[in-house]
Amino acid sequence: MVLHPVLGKLVSKRVVLASASPRRQEILTNVGLRFEVVPSWFKETLEKSSFTAPYEYAVETAKQKALEVANRMHVKHLRTPDVVIGADTIVSVDEQILEKPIDKQDAYRMLSRLNGKEHSVFTGVAIIHCHSKDNRLEMEITDFYEETKVKFSELSEELLWDYIHSGEPMDKAGGYGIQALGGMLVEYVHGDFLNVVGFPLNHFCKKLAELYYPPSKHNAQHKKYNSIPSVDTFENRSDGEGESSNFTEYKVASKLDSSGMDSSGAVYTSENSSAVRTGFTVPLENQNGVSQSASKLPSKILELMDGFRASKVLFVASKLKIFDNLKKKGPMKAVDIANDIGTSVCGTERLLDACASLGLLEKTPQGYSNTDSANTYLTSDGKYSLHGYIIHSNDHLWPLFTNLEYAVQEGSRQNHRAFGKKADDLFKDYYHSQEVKQRFMAAMHSIARLTAKDVATAFDLSQFKSACDLGGCTGALAHELVQVYPNLKVTVFDLPEVIANISFFQPSGQHTAPVTFVSGDFFKDNLPEADLYILSRVLHDWPDEKIHVLLSKISAVCRPGLNMEKML
Ligand SMILES: O=c1[nH]cc([C@@H]2O[C@H](COP(=O)(O)OP(=O)(O)OP(=O)(O)O)[C@@H](O)[C@H]2O)c(=O)[nH]1
């Protein structure tokens, strides 16, 4: 893998990404870079007219973002990072610079400008090597930019507004996200796609190569790498140039040393050189100077190893209603949030910082505030809130998964270990207390509502006159179905305990055919007749014998001419 030798030079360093952008975090994580996220507090308010070209603005903003983080970390006596990376993405069209829209109207203005035309996306990147000497911060700054040309198709007003209402434009330069729904607006891309998404990975690797493996004396006139040097490139240099190669690299190290880079991370030992010569891999140095292979950074494994921490941060912040609080009150300091929710200040601050690192919150000098995604999905009252499902995940699924080892050993459910009682019937367990029942219904409602439109439109169901959603709970999918197919009559069939509690979840003011609710047990009672049976999030809950019973009942009740293929 050719990229690793370059990125591997960062393995033993404390690397900080000075960006809250989840896309930048993902791009760098995907290639195995390990880093901390410290979002910059630098306000993107540089005077645009003072720059002669748009890319200069992006580069300067990237630099200021990175400098702010490097200085803050140094001043706050946090351990000074070795490398801080900052980036800024802008769109340039008709000599105007477009950043992130401030509201929907602004997004509309931006997208209308881009409509049917070609524009440029510039990402400026700053890489700062830091060193703390006599309590003074010394820095060496490297910066660059990348340009990608993007052309939008001619788009109707309706499409633009549909896109704006999706919420996607709000945290994206130029008001679109090419990696998601915004990709549908784009006719062509000339240049680096990831540059549009927020980070020019290819150019970044070339820059690292220039920094860490500068060309030797013999080919010094080719100062820049036009492609990312491969392992072979490095091998040849070491082989052919013997000591001079080491010397060149040492010079780089000392140059970086004088401006502050940790010398243990940059000086090559002869052991390292010989490792290069063997041609197996380019060596990496860890803190102890021990070589290790960079060719297989186990990023996926590390992600899986630590993933549970991130999940728990999300669960706890949701449980403590931090996102609700911030939606109501705007930016808040940790101490005020802690007072409001009755928690410790130090613990709350750590949790909030973790949320900011995960891209769930924004942290500015005014305090913490919700990102757009947090407002949409994590507050408890939003139309697309996932709050119910998150709480269910924390309170119910988490304890069960903690006992996965026993579940595998014993081949049985682990409710007795997780909750101190056996669950012969899963749903009896959910519905034994009002609190657990409501939590479960809220969970099912929130996930069903979020996915209902996609499910309802994934198939052409217009030939069906009636449908029965078995275990349809609050009717979230049923309500979407009657919106999409006004001639379809939908019956939701669920346990009496569920049907008795659906009123809280019913939509208000929808002018569509009503949904009918029928209570019963689909294993024991007669099923309502229908042309189409929907089993969504049902089968996985039951053993094969029970599934067989249910599918046989559906088969028997299906109207003549319609068969099991007509089940969702
Ligand atoms: O197609 C896409 N275009 C752009 C983006 C995202 O847009 C933002 C650009 O904003 P900025 O560079 O100011 O970065 P922030 O998100 O504010 O984070 P910082 O903390 O670094 O200031 C960026 O997130 C791109 O990823 C996109 O997703 N798709």
TrEMBL record:
Gene3D superfamilies from the UniProt entry: 3.90.950.10, Vaccinia Virus protein VP39, Winged helix-like DNA-binding domain superfamily/Winged helix DNA-binding domain
Keyword Hydrolase: yes
Single biological process term from Gene Ontology: methylation
Database matches in PROSITE patterns: SAM_OMT_II (PS51683)
Keyword vocabulary terms for this entry: Hydrolase, Methyltransferase, S-adenosyl-L-methionine, Transferase
Signal peptide feature range: none
Requisite cofactors: a divalent metal cation
Superkingdom per UniProt: Eukaryota
One of the record's GO molecular function terms: nucleoside triphosphate diphosphatase activity
O-methyltransferase dimerisation domain: residues covered: 302-380
UniProt domain O-methyltransferase C-terminal: residue ranges: 401-561
NCBIfam families: maf
PANTHER family: BIFUNCTIONAL DTTP/UTP PYROPHOSPHATASE/METHYLTRANSFERASE PROTEIN-RELATED, BIFUNCTIONAL DTTP_UTP PYROPHOSPHATASE_METHYLTRANSFERASE PROTEIN-RELATED
Protein name as catalogued: ASML protein
